[in-house]
Structures are given as C-alpha cells and as structure tokens.
Amino acid sequence: MNVLVTGGAGYIGSHTVLCLLNEGYHVIVLDNLCNSSVEAIKRVEQLTQQSVTFIEGDVCNKQHLENVFTKHKVDCVIHFAALKAVGESALQPLKYHHNNVSGSINLLSCMAKHQVNQFIFSSSATVYGEQNPYPYIETMPLGTPSSPYGTTKMIVERVLEDNNKANVDFKAISLRYFNPIGAHPSGEIGEDPSGIPNNLLPFVAQVAVGKREKLTVFGDDYPTPDGTCLRDYLHVMDLAEGHVAALNWLKQQTTLDEVAVFNLGTGTGTSVLNIIRAFETETGKPVPYEVANRREGDLPAFWANADKAKQVLKWQAKRDINAMMQDTWRWQSNNPDGYSK
Ligand code: NAD
Ligand code: UD1
Q: How far is the C-alpha of 162 from the C-alpha of 159, rounded, in Å?
C-alpha cells in the first residue's frame, strides 16, 4: 500500500514515516521543507534500512500535486503539511489560512480527481476551544480556537465533514493531537524548531544544552495544584504509532458515514513545574527558570479522554514522562544544532 505523507520531513511526520516503513508501507513524502530538513528523511532511511520517495513540493501548488498523483499510485494520504506557530498565525492570519486551508483543499481536490479516497488529517486539541470542560472528548462540539492557527484546523475538519457527506467513497479521519514531545529513542530524529522555540519541551532542552540561559514559566497563579498549566504530553513515537493504528483501521472500513475523529493523548495532565523536575531528574541537567506573566491565549488545563482511540483503534500511549524526557535529551544532546550540524 502506498501512503503519501505531506509534511513527512517534519517533526511528527518523520517519526510517522519511520513507523509506516517498519509496518511494511511504501511511503512517498511531499514536503516543501519550509520548516524541516531532508536530513530527517535520510536518517529515517538509515534507521529503517528502507527507502522513501521524497518529493520537494508544495501542497499550495496544484501542479506539484498533480505531478505526484500522476506519477505515483497513491492509496492513502496522511496530511501533516501545515504551518503551526500560534503567535505568528495571529500576526499573519492570511498566510496560515492560505497554507493550511487552501493547501488542504488543493490536496483534497487532487485526491478526488485521481479517485484517492482515504485521508488522515493532523488536527489539534485546540479545536475544542476555550468553552469545553476538560478532559476533552470527541463528542463535544467544536469550540472557538484561541488562534488563527487553531481556526485553520477547525475549518479543515469542517471541510472534511462536507466532503464526506458529498462523496460516499471518501473515508477520512481527523486525529486531534494533544502535546507531542520526545524523540525517537535512537536520538537520530527529533524536533528541530527554527529560531526561538514556542513550545515548552524544545525550550527546556535548549536551556539544558546551554543554548539559552533560562526558561520563562508563563504564570504560576493558575487554579491548578502548583499554579502552572496542565497539559497532556504524549511521546511522539506513541503519536506516530497512533497514525499507523488509524491507517490500519481506516483501510478495513468499507465506508464511513461521517469523518472519524480520535483524540490522541495519554489522558493525564502534567504541570510545567513537573515537566521541569522530570527533565532534571532524568537527565541530571539543571533547568534554570523564572516565573513571568501568563502567556496570552493559554488555557489553565486540558487533557484528553483517550478512550475512543483505545476502544476503536486499539491504540493507547505506552511511554511515560520519564521516557519522553530521556529521548528528548538524547536527541538534543546528540544534535545541539538540530539537523544543521
Ligand atoms: P513541522 O513543522 O515539524 O512539520 C510540518 C511539515 O510540513 C514541515 O516539514 C513543513 O516543511 C511542511 N509544510 C508546511 N507547509 C507545507 C506546504 N504548503 N507544502 C508542503 N509541505 C509543507 O510540524 P509538526 O509538529 O510535525 O506538525 C505536523 C502537523 O501536526 C501539523 O499539521 C501541525 O499543525 C499538527 N499538530 C502539531 C502539534 C504539535 O504540537 N507539534 C499539535 C497538534 C497538531
Ligand atoms: C500550544 C498552542 C496550541 C498548539 C500546541 C501544540 C498556544 C497558546 N497554544 O499549546 O495551539 O496546538 O502548542 O503545538 O501557543 N510554557 C512555558 N514557557 C515556555 C513555553 C511554554 O511556561 O517557554 C508553558 C505554556 O504556558 C503551557 C505549557 O508550557 O502552559 C505548554 O506550552 P506549549 O508547549 O506551547 O503547548 P500549549 O500551550 O499546550
């Protein structure tokens, strides 16, 4: 079975490509490398001893897509390609809507033309918005995401629903990720953010490796046990395996009456201070930090109800916070400058 993975050179994509290859799938990656390096693909090939068809191209470019679907027989698409910097999305919303929404529509149109009907979409817990109580469960209505980035995910979920209603053959899954962290246990592939990291773990790891002086903890006056926010951190390898489980399930379904939605998380919340402590314990590296004001748009706490993925996909997160810290550190300390070393 041939799987087209858009954004497959990125953080989650590269780990998923590795898992797909290990499961015997043939993988074609389409990535414009706007936030990644082809080195990630080379390392996946080394780790798996298998080859990937890599195409440098853009989902916003209809000709690039047409070339891929004309040249390759594609059975299923896993669509990671997107821009994901929440802060930037507030400053440049049109860039985000163009890349994430128009890019997805181009892809779906090309799939329809070439009668490719199986689709797995990278959605996010951000689609639950601020209104829903946690833990988030798939039956909740979509909320109002706190950023234009989040809005793009919500819109694409809606587009998929409409497309599903209009086309009986179309089978789609939206996977709502919680907070992926960690790296492949080899330390060969991992998260390589450009510039100053926005997310917690890459920042913690860069402080520990000496690239940044200290971490800023955004607020310790939240109504949580230690005053810092709670999130559902899950190991990126568990998340990658979740995609394989989703694909294995999708291909067994003859039709789907609606888009199948699954939370991919662990079902527990961990505070920022507990993350710092776990990182220090597992790595022996101090993480100096100072507490500052809350970050705009942050919610005090959220985590997943992950029961549906367990029941239907037979998937659940297996790796604990300690493994997440050890693997983050192995990647960061072996590759202090990411893939560009
Ligand atoms: P990433 O930036 O590492 O990977 C995205 C990849 O897509 C990159 O390789 C980038 O070069 C590529 N890309 C972007 N726009 C493209 C385009 N127009 N055409 C072709 N390639 C393009 O990000 P990631 O963390 O691996 O995230 C993957 C997906 O998961 C994204 O859709 C993201 O929104 C979603 N997601 C991520 C998180 C997270 O915490 N990392 C959480 C929820 C959802
Ligand atoms: C952020 C995004 C969310 C996106 C998710 C995964 C915002 C408001 N939300 O969520 O839309 O889906 O990433 O990509 O950006 N923290 C610090 N110091 C730091 C960095 C983070 O204290 O330098 C804290 C944050 O306040 C938060 C926690 O660490 O409490 C996790 O932050 P982060 O990794 O950015 O993830 P989310 O806030 O969950």
A: 5
